[in-house]
Amino acid sequence: MKSWIIVATFFCLWLSTTFPDVVQSYMAYSLILTFGILHGANDITLIVKSKKDSADKPGFKKILLYYILTVLAILLVFVLYPPLALLLFILLSGYHFGEQHFGNKMMKSGLGPSVMYLSYGLVILFMIFLIRVNEVGLIIEEVSSLVLNKQLFEAVLAVSALIFVVSLFYFWYTKQLNVKIYEELFYILIFFIIFNTASLLWGFCIYFILWHSIPSLVDQMKYLYGDASKSTFRTYLRSSWLYWLVSVLGLGLLFVFFGSDHQFFISILLYFLAAITFPHVLVMANLKHH
User: How does pLDDT run across 2-49, given as a tens digit for each residue?
Assistant: First the structure.
């Protein structure tokens, strides 16, 4: 699958040199609304399966209620104290990206691997932030009223990159991480080129969909059904389509009302993604250690 992802990445990179930013944005919206939302639409089913052998196995309605309350709680935090919610969103998203990318290749768990996962995700995010500093600064100010400067992004990126490289070499050298060092560093270089070439939204989408959402879908199908194939994908769709549809309709309504203000809509999209990311990260972290 990795070869396919690399080919698709370069194809998407070519698209970014062919189409203007507005077209790239619509392509990004399309992929986020399909594969992006879909990869988190089966969380309830995943929780039910992970708890099926538990002595205090909760019912479906109880799990669904807790899930909805978690989403609403995150939205409430964004309303009451946006800077805290934004910080938690960045940290959890960074950890989640790293865990998805390296979790199946790591031979141990604990603080050390968690630090590496977080540092990898922060490298990805702050590389985007720094390359698109003006656009990102406006979005952060819109969402949290914080005015962050370029020097902060540079500092976080530098520290995260140092921690990531050191931990990557350490876990590889001690044979606790089954990766090829040169490949992982090459992927970082590819992401750097993408973020510099594509628009902010399309560049993020290329990483988020090809390198995160689709591999996550594959992992989920293997966990739920034993393998990843066309038939298990259809089964996955049947169990998740309702949650996916509700999410897409909700975003569609937001786009109807706020889509004309592109900058503001990206901020709204960030709220939405944050709200569904928090419970999804907890679900996937639980599965990685199940």
Answer: 788 999 999 999 999 899 988 998 899 888 888 888 877 777 777 777
What is the pTM assigned to this prediction?
0.86
Backbone angles phi, psi at 55, to 5 degrees: -65, -35
- Please say whether the beta carbons of 46 and 224 come within 8 A: yes
Rounded Cα distance between 144 and 85, Å, is 9
Q: Are 16 and 27 in contact (CB under 8 A)?
A: no
pLDDT tens digits along 175-204: 999 999 999 999 999 999 999 999 998 999
Rounded Cα gap, residues 30 and 261, in angstroms: 18
Which residue is listed with tokens 């490949």?
A: 183
Give the domain extent around 98. 2-288
> Rounded CA gap, 285 and 251, in Å?
26
What length is written for the chain?
290
Give yes or no for a contact between 135 and 118, defined as CB atoms under 8 angstroms apart. Answer: no
What is the C-alpha end-to-end distance of the chain, expressed in Å? 24
Nearest to 11 by CA among 217, 196, 198, 186: 198
Give the Å distances, CA to CA, from 53 to 47, 57, 159, 277: 11, 7, 42, 26
**106, 176 contact by CB (below 8 A):** yes
Q: Number of folded domains in the chain? A: 1
Residue 192's contacts (CB-CB under 8 Å, 6 or more residues apart) are 127, 131
Token pair, residue 159, equals 């520290």
**Single-letter residue type at 96:** H
Phi, psi values for residue 287, rounded to 5°? -70, -35
- What the block records as the tokens of 25 is 């944005």
Name the amino acid, one letter, at 68.
I
Separation of alpha carbons 263 and 258, rounded Å: 9
Alpha-carbon distances of 188 from 125, 135, 144, 223, 240, rounded to whole Å: 12, 22, 29, 28, 32
